[in-house]
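Collaborator request, handled under Task 6.
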Amino acid sequence: MKRINSLESIPENIDMLTGIDLIGNIKQLFKNPVQMPGCLFLLCIRGNCTITIHLNKYKLERNTIAIVFPHQFVQVTEESEDCRFAFIGFSQKLIQSPPLFSRMIEYTPSIFEEPVIELRTDVADIFYEYFKLLMKAIRLPNAFVKDEQAHLIFSQLIMGLGNIYKQRDGNERPRYNRNQEIVKQLIRIVIQNYKLERNISFYAEKMHLSPQHLSTTIKKTTGKTLTDIISTFVIRDAQAKLRSTELTIQEIAYSLNFPDISFFGKYFKRYTGMSPKQYRNME
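Structure tokens returned to the collaborator:
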């Protein structure tokens, strides 16, 4: 792979980037804590290292894969000399698009809890060969891999890994401090209830915490407010329905428990800068 001096040097118009780290660039790129601008799948193909993802340390060695979500901090430390990776990264804009949101939501909590998993050798080999195939395809002239395919490729990866997570029920989970446990629990509860509830008091009551304590903990641990987290799920769901279904705007508003179309329109515009109708008609 060509040397990348910083994540900021990656052009903004690139939705997908893949390669094999033959020169140890990954270790240098993440030598210090870096906040991920997109989603990274990092497959260790040789050697080993310690990787810190969102405050937690993990051992990354051959046939293990790490999944880092946007805004999570990541750092590679204590690496062996021969530590090498195959990787594929996707832009935040791509993975937050409405078509992918509904596919991600099922697997997000499990990956958030356990972002590094060990793969069977045969499964790791499939991922490695797939990464190499994509790398070759991207290099072909005349845009052999188009933007629309990047969505499908991300879906294949997240669903494939999601199925692996489902098969690993009962395995030992990593330990978290109290604040991280609160965030983990909150995400699960929001996923189950965001269509009906946007009130902070509801989530605080569900978690047996005071609204102030819950809000302060979430802000301190994630850098986002509780309202931000809830609204992200609501808006992405609304965007997916506006783009991918023939439901009327009123039906979408009711499906997300808004009292009327006017209230829904104001809420949607507050977070997107446009009305639901403008978003639906946008090219």
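The cover message to the collaborator said: "The chain has 13 helices and nine strands. The longest strand covers residues 38-46. Please let us know whether this matches your experimental observations."
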